[in-house]
Amino acid sequence: MNGAEIMVKTAVAADIEICFSNPGTTELPLVAALDSMRGIRAVLGLFEGVCTGAADGYGRMSDKPSMILLHLGPGLSNGLANLHNAKRARTPVLNVIGEHASWHRTSDAPLTMDIEALARTVSGWQRTCESTATLSRDTADAIAAAMKGQISTLIVPQDHQWAECKDAAIGVPQLSFEEIDKTSIDEAARLLRTHGKSLLLLGGTALRKAGLQAAARIKAAAGCDFLSERVFSRMERGPGVPFVHRLPYFPEHAVAALSKYDLIVLAGAKEPVAFFGYKDMPSRLLTAKQTAFSIGGENRNLPEVLERLADALDAPLYSALETGSHAKAGRHDLPSGPLTAEKASMVLAMLQPEEAIIVDESVTSGASYTGSLLFSQHTRCELSLRGVKRRSNLGSERLLRA
C-alpha cells in the first residue's frame, strides 16, 4: 500500500464521504487511490473555486468535513475566495494540497510556490507531510482539527504519495472538544439579571433550531432580545423555530440597533464591527459604556451552552412558550400589485418547498428576504449566507433545492 492509498483509507475510516478535486500531476497517486478504493466519492471540479465552494456548502449543511484535493500553490490560490468564506463560517474542511516531490522543491520549477504561507491565510490548522510513515497519522490529525470547525490543510509532496508504506496501520482522529465553562454560564446569568436592557447576539450553531429555542427560553426568563450576526453559516427556519432578525448591514443602522442595550451576550458571534471603514463612522459598533460578554468560546455545541444558560436562569421550557409569539404562523395571501423586491422576496419565502436550502448571494434586492421568512413559518428551510459574492456550483444554478 502506498502513501496515497493509506491516506484515502484513513479518510474513509474517519467517515469522509466525498472529495471535491481539481488535481494535477503532483496529485496523480491520490487520483489513482481515489479511483481504485471504495468508500469515498470523488467529484471533479473544472475550477478550484467550485471545489472549495462545494466543500464549504457541504460542511455547513452536514456539520462534517469533506475533502478537497488541489494542485500546488496556484491551485490553492484559485480556490482561496471560497476558503475565506469557509473560514469565516467556521466550516469543517479537510484541505489537501499536492506538492512537488520533496527533492524537487529546491529546483524552483515553474509552479513552485510557498504553499505554507498561502495556506496560513485561511487555515486554522496546517501541516506539511515529512514522510510516508507519518501520512496516516497526519491525515487523522487533520481530520480531527477540521471537526473543530475550521479548515485544516495538509500539504503532501508527491514522493510521499507514491512511496510504499512499511506500516499499514490506520490513524484514528483523536477528537477533543472544549468543555462547557460553567463559570461563564453562571456569570452570564448574573449579568442578565443585573443589567438593564440586554441582547443575545447569536452566530454559528446557536442559529440551529435547538439554539434558537434555548434563546427564546432565555428571553422569556431575562427579558432580553436576540439578534443574529450579519453573516452566518446557516440558520434553521420553520415550524417551532423562533424567528430571529439579523443585525443591520450599514454601520449607522447597526449602531442604532445596538445602542439601546447595556449588555450584549455573544453566543457563537464575535463582537460586531463595520464591514468597511466609513468616514466619520466607528469600526467597533459597541461603545466603551456597553458590556460585551462571550459564552461558549470555540465550543461547537452552542445549543447546549444556551440550554445551560436558560436552565441557570430557571427559564420555562420551550414547549410552554409555543402558544405565544413563537407559535407556528398562519398562512398569508400572496402579494399582488406592482412588482417590487420586497414582494418578490415574500413570494419566494411563501412558495419555497419544504426542506429547501436557500443560498443567499444577493447584494441589494434580496435584503428583504430574511424578513419575509416570518411569513413562511409553515415551511422548514435552511438559510445560508456567503461572505464573498462569488459563484459556486452549490446553489448558484438553483437557489432552491428540495
What does this protein structure show overall?
The protein is α/β, with parallel strands linked by helices. The chain has 3 domains: 160 residues, Thiamin diphosphate (ThDP)-binding fold, Pyr/PP domains (Rossmann fold), CATH 3.40.50; 146 residues, TPP-binding domain (Rossmann fold), CATH 3.40.50; 74 residues, no CATH class. Helix content is 34%, strand content 17%. The strands form 3 sheets. A 6-stranded parallel β-sheet has the order 2-1-3-4-6-5, with helices on both faces. Strands 10-8-7-11-12 form a 5-stranded parallel β-sheet, with helices on one face. Strands 9-14-13 form a 3-stranded mixed β-sheet, with no helix packed on it. β5, α7 and β6 form a beta-alpha-beta unit. α1 packs across α2, α1 runs parallel beside α7 and α3 runs parallel beside α5. The radius of gyration is 23 Å and the shape is globular. The C terminus is likely disordered.
Annotation keywords:
14 helices; six-stranded parallel beta sheet; 14 strands; Rossmann fold; 402 residues; disordered C terminus; 3 domains
